[in-house]
Amino acid sequence: MNPEGAEKDRWAAVGHVDGDEMIFAAIAADVRAAIEALRASRLDAAADHVDRAAGLFDRATVLFRTVATARPGQAVRSEPYERFENLCGLPTAPGDAHDTVVRAYLDLRRSARFDEAEWNRFRSALTGLEERHQRWKSECLTQPALPAAR
Hints:
The chain is mostly helical. Helices cover 73% and strands 0% of the residues.
């Protein structure tokens, strides 16, 4: 084994994890901002935040495919990624204080009056986020990683 190559691989893995964490922290921040916008009855702003979060998945995919050293099927389950998943999760018990974008949407849907085009824009943004999330998982966690740069 080449010790110099192993050292480069180690730093590539560190860079990947740091990059993943930064991207997922940004995605989670946009989802959190979308929840806040929904709670403030700002449906258009919420859709903008969700669209921005979805776009960040494209960057996450490029980063993962460029520097990943993980084996296929091994997810990097960082704290920011877990935060993102929790913010997007389905609502649990009615008394649970954990807020999600779905819960905020459903609450707003019951109380606010927007036209169907406005609701559709938000639903489309949320669908786009979920599609990119699933694509990221399928492309990045099931495909062989590119070899680390030497």
